[in-house]
Amino acid sequence: MKVTEIMTQPVITVKSDTTLEEVAKMMLDNNIGGSPVVDEDGGLIGIVTESDFSAKEHAIPFSRIYAPQLFGKWMSTEGIEKAYEAARTIKVSGIMSTPVISVNEDDNMADAVKKMLEYRVHRVPVLRGGKPIGVLTRHDLLKMVVKDY
Fold first, then answer.
1. Of the candidates 137, 111, 128, which has an alpha carbon nearest to the alpha carbon of residue 35?
2. CA dihedral 136, 142, 148, 149 (to 10 degrees)
3. How far is the C-alpha of 87 from the C-alpha of 103, rounded, in Å?
4. Per the domain annotation, does 149 fall within a domain?
5. Is residue 116 one of the residues assigned to a domain?
6. Is residue 74 domain-resident?
7. Angle of CA points 19, 44, 26, to nearest 5°
8. What is the CATH number of the domain that holds 33?
9. pLDDT tens string 23-71
10. 123 and 33 Cβ atoms separated by less than 8 Å
11. Can you give the residue range of the structural domain that contains 18?
C-alpha cells in the first residue's frame, strides 16, 4: 500500500510569518492537529503541531531542576495564561519544528510507519518534489484496518 492511498488531502499549509492565533484558528476550524510550514515557493521548511502549543518541562541548564517552558520562554506556572495571551502575535517561525520528518508520495506504508515510530512523530507531510501534497497521521492508519474505506 502506498502513502497516497490513505493520506489526508488536500493539505493545509501555513507560511512562517503566520501568527499563532491564525494557526490555532485554522487548526480548530479544520479539525486538524498540525500543518506543514512552507516558504514562498511552497517548499517544506517546518511543521507546527498542537503539541507546539503545550507547555513542556525542560531542564534548567547546569542543574537538575525542571521548569515549565512555553513558546521557548521560561515561566512560572502562574504566568501560563498570560503567556498564551501574549503568544497571539508570535510567528510560526518561532515555534515550528525543523528539520521535518517527511515521506514521499510513492513511499510504501510499511516504511512510513517505521519512520513515524523511529522518530516518534504522529504526523508526517507527504511530499512531491519537496512540496507538501498531503499529511499522513496516526488517524489515517485506521484506514488500513477498515476494508474499502
1. 137
2. -70
3. 31
4. no
5. yes
6. yes
7. 35
8. 3.10.580.10
9. 999 999 999 999 999 999 999 999 999 888 765 554 555 656 555 555 5
10. yes
11. 3-144
Average pLDDT rounded to a whole number, residues 113-119? 95
**Cell 497521521 appears where?**
137
**CA atoms of 83 and 69, how far apart (whole Å):** 10
Taking the C-alpha atoms of residue 17 and residue 4, their distance in angstroms, rounded to an integer, is 29
Instruction: Burial-class residue 146 by CB neighbours within 10 Å (0-12, 13-18, 19+).
Output: exposed
* pLDDT reading at 22 higher than 90: yes
Report the C-alpha dihedral over residues 51, 54, 55, 59, rounded to 10 degrees: 0
pTM of this structure:
0.80
Residue 106 falls within a domain, yes or no?
yes
Q: How far is CA 43 from CA 36, 64, 138, in A?
A: 10, 40, 23
What total of structural domains would you count in the chain?
1
Q: Which three cell numbers stand for residue 49?
A: 503541531
